[in-house]
Design goal:
With 568 residues, the protein is α/β, with parallel strands linked by helices. The chain contains 24 helices and 17 strands. The strands form four sheets. It has a seven-stranded mixed β-sheet with strand order 10-9-8-11-12-13-16, sandwiched between helices. A five-stranded parallel β-sheet has the order 3-5-4-6-7, with helices on both faces. The chain has a three-stranded mixed β-sheet with strand order 1-2-17. Bound molecules: 1,4-dihydronicotinamide adenine dinucleotide, pyruvic acid and magnesium ion. It comes from Dactylosporangium cerinum.
Length: 568
């Protein structure tokens, strides 16, 4: 039996959607469905008369109603489920609502509530979204993508996760599709990436999460994680198929375990258009926040002394970009590397440790240097902070409350404006809350967090806490790459993106945020996109001509508006 390739239900011509679907099939297509906003003529043409109540409403009418319904949901998880159902029913309405209430709803669609939704995925499961690839059937990858009915030029972006390290909550197996869906929702809300031209992908290689393996409702493969050659071959089959079927697509990797994430990126980054968000997107947004902080502190990038607590995917990704920024500020690479101290489970990483991961090796400190720092229980974060006297402390460890009052006060003894970024997500993982950090440093701390937090008032000054989350960066990066039709995603593109974000921030007022506010995410993303597209052109990585990048970026941004729908 041969597989039957699915056909697209609709396409766009002169600003209208044209569809071969009729009746309920139209209402069941989220990017086509306008529900009560279908005009009388559209209802007649598409076989919808009698399937809808009499009133013909506008998008604004519909937004008003769903906003009320949203507020009737009693918990953030149920709000998330409500929005997912809306997205599956009427995608324009979902994106209009989300865009109009971004500060309110981003934490529900994305970090932190997305973490809870992923944990509950099999229980709250209603309908599928995306492509589910199973390690049991690597030879069905092509058929799986073809079931979408998309052509070679129809896809701009694919976000894939194997769900080994979802945010800071660990292995969530098939539920990991939720992070791909959430990241893509942010791409569209923040940067106007066309939601009809993206694919979320679950790479289901099993799970080591016992709770899932023993949960009768679990919807994924019920075996332990496959590793080694079979895993690599599966990833390779995914990359080969995706790039063959959709040669223009950017492949985004999200929430892999540290060794796989790094290895996959190294294998493909010079061959295809791809990036790892946790390593590179995070590194760039943290660099942006650092550039702002350094301006406030009146110091220079090259003068920083940086302690990173949690030297995994995100931590070392941040280290790499901060090191490169110090090199751009005039330091030799070796000298820049020596201004970074990485602390992980085993304490300060030193060069006598045999079990370091290869990407940690460059940051291992000479054993002799650290020997005299050892407290009674080894060289932990407290000893490193006391001895290294850092100007910056970054948390990517998933360890809640790891930045204690004693450690923060010790840091603040040695530096005028301590820069402290507790970046772990979701809320129950953050290394310290900003209100404490500001109090412990007497208002001198320059703070940014991964989760969204409200402003903190301390001794009459209100401190806005910028969200150092890769969501402020990757959407614009993706848009810039799409507009430029970039062949590769280079380190230079991340540096350009970071500088563009930092350039949007005015830090002259006391308590000003180190990063732009989430309300301005579309402006931030457009600015990043222009910088990234220009950088791609400068590095001869752009395949599209860039005559007027500012206008090209604006033109490329999808808007949540109902289009006329015609029968075809
Ligand atoms: N703000 C942002 O944009 C981002 C934040 N993150 C957050 O960073 C955290 C880490 O994420 P990944 O790097 O992807 O995970 P990962 O698993 O690659 O890295 C975590 C590291 O922390 C270490 N660690 C765990 N317990 C520790 C302890 N008690 N003491 C010292 N080190 C310890 C682990 O050994 C590992 O090396 C998560 O909470 C995640 O949500 C990750 C990416 C982006
Ligand atoms: C924000 C993000 O990508 C993470 O926490 O993994
Ligand atoms: Mg992530």
């Amino acid at each position: 039996m041969t597989a039957v390739a699915a056909k697209r239900r609709f396409w766009v011509e002169d600003g209208s959607s044209v569809t071969s679907a009729r009746g309920v099939e139209v209402l069941d297509t989220p990017l086509l469905n306008k529900n009560t906003a279908f005009t009388r003529q559209e209802r007649a043409e598409l076989g919808l008369e009698g399937l809808l109540p009499a009133a013909v409403q506008t998008l604004e009418d519909r937004v008003r109603r769903v906003y009320e319904q949203y507020h009737e949901q009693p918990t953030d998880l149920l709000k998330n489920v409500f929005l997912a159902m809306l997205q599956d029913n009427d995608e324009v309405l979902f994106y209009r609502l989300l865009t109009e209430h971004l500060r309110e709803m981003l934490p529900v669609v994305y970090d932190p509530t997305v973490g809870e939704a992923i944990k509950r995925y099999s229980h709250e499961y209603r309908r599928p979204r995306g492509v589910y690839l199973s390690i049991a059937e690597p030879d069905r990858i092509e058929a799986a993508f073809q079931d979408l009915g998309l052509g070679a030029g129809d896809v701009d972006l694919i976000v894939a996760s194997d769900a080994e390290e979802i945010l800071g909550i660990g292995d969530w197996g098939a539920g990991g599709i939720g992070i791909a869906v959430g990241k893509l929702a942010v791409y569209t809300a923040a940067a106007g990436i066309d939601p009809g031209r993206v694919i979320p992908v679950s790479l289901d290689v099993g799970t080591n999460n016992e709770a899932l393996l023993n949960d009768p409702d679990y919807v994924g493969n019920r075996h332990s994680r496959v590793r080694g050659q079979r895993y690599d071959d599966f990833i390779d089959a995914y990359v080969r198929t995706a790039t063959k079927l959709f040669p223009g697509a950017l492949l985004h990797w999200e929430d892999f375990g540290p060794s796989n994430g790094r290895r996959i990126l190294e294998r493909y980054r010079d061959r295809i258009c791809t990036f790892n968000d946790d390593m590179q997107g995070t590194g760039a947004i943290v660099l942006a926040a650092t550039l702002s902080a350094v301006r406030v502190a009146g110091t220079r990038m090259r003068d920083q002394r940086i302690v990173i607590f949690g030297a995994g995917t995100a931590g070392v990704g941040i280290a790499d970009q901060l090191r490169d920024a110090m090199v751009r500020d005039g330091l030799e690479r070796g000298d820049a590397t020596r201004r970074i101290w990485c602390v992980d489970r085993q304490g300060l990483l030193t060069d006598d440790m045999t079990a370091l991961r290869d990407f940690q090796n460059p940051y291992a400190r000479p054993t002799a240097e650290a020997r005299e720092w050892a407290g009674t229980g080894g060289i932990g974060l407290a000893e490193v902070v006391a001895n290294a006297q850092p100007t910056m402390l970054i948390g990517t460890s998933t360890v809640h409350r790891a930045f204690t009052e004693a450690i923060v006060k010790e840091m603040a003894r040695h530096v005028d404006r301590p820069i402290i970024f507790p970046l772990s997500n979701p809320t129950e993982r953050i290394e310290a809350m900003p209100s404490d950090l500001i109090a412990w440093t007497g208002g001198r701390g320059l703070i940014s967090t991964g989760i969204p937090v409200p402003p903190v008032t301390y001794e009459g000054v209100t401190y806005a806490i910028g969200q150092a989350n890769n969501a402020l960066l990757y959407p614009g990066l993706g848009l810039g790459a799409v507009v430029a039709r970039a062949k590769r995603i280079s380190d230079g593109m991340f540096a350009a993106a970071a500088e563009a974000v930092a350039g949007l921030v005015s830090v002259s007022t006391p308590g000003a945020s180190l990063l732009p506010q989430v309300e301005n995410l579309r402006q931030v993303s457009a600015t990043v996109a222009v910088a990234v597209a220009k950088q791609a052109a400068a590095e001869h990585l752009a395949q599209a001509p860039l005559k007027d990048p500012v206008q090209q970026v604006q033109d490329a941004m999808w808007q949540p508006e109902y289009r006329p729908v015609r029968a075809g």
